[in-house]
């Protein structure tokens, strides 16, 4: 089940990257690269920073096949996929929840403190998109719009809170994933966003 | 003493990042991220490249608290801090001196050659700002304006020169830090800058 | 022989970076940095991801001298070098071939699968240029123009195909390098390029 979700997350992040690159009129190689870094960039940066090398995808090339599938789907069906924005959002959100959990677990595995684990979860889920935006020469959308990373952080805090209650990880993981996914969809529906950084100063 | 300076450097780099992000109208999460990478990005890249993992701030979460303080100060007082440009410059310069020394020391600790240590010192002091500018979609200010990194390099060379004179590190470190800080302030006052790269060609 | 080519590749990549930075009106330090990352960025990212740390150039500072030479040549002769575009292309192409081989070999040395080795070869040859473009605030040219990375991939595949034929690496390496170099020059002459990502959709 979890593995299926991991595959889904990787695939959808790859498609999200590929569609952005197609929209930016990159060539086929550029599209493939952006798909790749969007899907695997977050985990790669995480692995490099905690010293888990060679990084994950080098030891399990299934990820590369999944990204290739996402790339091909995007190339052939990109107009159709654009119209599927809502379904894409759902998949993207699944990726967000699953990747946050994976990042959290790697941090725990390396004996890092909860605060650092929450950062690693958020990084795993969001940094691929940041690299995508940098490569496409945009200010990362992550820093500008929507509740997104905030939910990863909230999910991470919930994870450690539930651990305090002595629940097993098998129970906690789905709760956290569902929490992130549900709130992301609600946030999207009601168009929630974080205030910009100068909000307090404005009221001075 | 040194630790106090390290805290000061981290705090001021975090504020410098946060103010840039607020100016760019990023949301609160974006501001926090930019504060984080500005303060810890240089050290993170250094640690990753020399293989000191998990990287430093993961093992000492005090850094995260310091950045959080810098973030909160920036959010609440950003208009006031903007007016404090000169004081900010002083703090920023302290960060520059201290971070250069920290980078130098890590290089020596890993048995790397002096040239590489000087690069690591410069990288530690300046790369956070480079990442900040990339994330904010600017050509890094480091490459365009003022004597800045040049002073880190000069400070690093001075460090190894003084070591040749058999001085102890306890004597060398403050000399190098004061050298960097003093020259940076003088450079700022007299508006020194490096010539642009095509300077020689122009005279052809 | 191989080492001479490695030196040539590093030198020419450094010049290519320096010329871009001069064109972008960066200051001398900025020009040096861009020369540095263009020449060594690909190998650095590769080493960090496979856990070969401290990264290569830290243990062999000859690379730093080579880059310094490239930097000085660019500063003094930049107008002349611009006119030498065709010769530069030849050298750049040698770098492409050699760096691909180096990346392939590091991957094999670390026992990684052929697919990953091909990615590492391509990364080593091309990622320095990607970092150069990001630092200069451009969408990486790699993703937009010409057959370039595609040839690294093709060369990598050829490498493993020839290995299946039981040829020794001493025979395979020059064949692969010549393959990449020859096709790159032909591609340049006939102005081949990859279709952009939305090509199939357009025909819908």
UniProtKB/TrEMBL annotation, chains A, B, C:
Transmembrane segments: 26-43, 63-81, 88-104, 110-135, 147-165, 171-192
Protein name: Trimeric intracellular cation channel family protein
Pfam families linked to this entry: Gly_transporter
Ranges where the Glycine transporter domain occurs: 4-78, 90-163
Record membrane topology: Multi-pass membrane protein
Subcellular location: Cell membrane
Family: Belongs to the UPF0126 family.
Keywords attached to this entry: Cell membrane, Membrane, Transmembrane, Transmembrane helix
Annotated coiled-coil segments of the chain: none
InterPro entries to which the protein is assigned, alphabetical: Gly_transporter
Principal location class: membrane
């Amino acid at each position: 089940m979890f593995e299926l979700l991991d595959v889904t997350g990787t695939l959808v992040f790859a498609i999200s990257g590929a569609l952005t690159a197609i929209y930016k009129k990159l060539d086929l190689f550029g599209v493939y690269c952006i798909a790749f870094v969007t899907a695997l960039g977050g985990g790669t940066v995480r692995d490099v920073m905690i010293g888990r090398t060679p990084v994950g995808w080098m030891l399990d090339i299934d990820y590369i096949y999944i990204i290739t599938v996402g790339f091909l789907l995007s190339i052939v069906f990109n107009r159709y996929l654009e119209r599927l924005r809502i379904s894409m959002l759902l998949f993207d959100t699944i990726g967000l929840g699953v990747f946050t959990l994976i990042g959290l677990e790697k941090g725990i595995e390396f004996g890092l403190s909860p605060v650092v684990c929450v950062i690693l979860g958020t990084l795993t889920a969001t940094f691929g998109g940041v690299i995508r935006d940098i490569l496409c020469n945009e200010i990362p959308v992550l820093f500008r719009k929507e509740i997104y990373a905030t939910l990863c952080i909230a999910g991470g805090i919930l994870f450690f809170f539930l651990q305090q209650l002595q629940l097993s990880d098998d129970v906690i993981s789905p709760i956290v994933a569902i929490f992130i996914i549900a709130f992301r969809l609600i946030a999207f529906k009601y168009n929630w966003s974080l205030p910009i950084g100068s909000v307090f100063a404005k009221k001075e």
